[in-house]
Fold:
Amino acid sequence: MKEHKHKDVFKQGAITPVFIGDCIAKHQSKTTVGAHNIFLGQVRADKIDGKTVSTIEYTAYDDMANKKFNAIREAAFTKFNLTCMHIYHSLGKVRIGEICLFVFVSSPRRKEVFEALEFVVEEIKATVPVFGKEIFEDTSHRWKVNS
Structure:
C-alpha cells in the first residue's frame, strides 16, 4: 500500500471560499481523475434554550487529532479507489455561515467519491478529538455536542 503524505489539517479561523476554489483549481491537471466530491461543514445559527449561536470556537489536541485525521485518510485510501484527498478543519473562532470543515476526495469514478466522502466525514465526527465551544449572541457559551 502506498503511504500518503501526512500533513497538518488545521487552518486558523474559517476556511475561505478562495482557499476552497484554489484547491479545486489545482486538480484540473490531474487527468486520471474522473470525479470529485466535496463536503463543506458550515457553522449554523442553532437556537438552544432560547439563545442563538453566533460563533463556534474550535480547539483540539493537535497532535492526536492530526494522527486521527491521517489514520482516517489512510483507511479511506485502503478502502476506496481514490486518487487524491484533502481534509481541512478550522481552529479558533468561526462565525455562523462560515466553513469549518472541508473534505475533498477524487477518484477515477463517481461511485467511489460518494462512498468515500460519507465514510470520511462520519469517521471524523465520531473519532477525531476536535471540540467546539458554541458562543451565543449574548456572549454566554457551552461545549457543542456533535450530532
Remarks:
- The beta strands are 10-12, 35-42, 47-48, 51-60, 84-95, 99-107, 130-136, 141-143.
- The first strand starts at residue 10 and ends at 12.
- The chain is about 30% helix and 35% strand.
- The chain has one domain: 10-143.
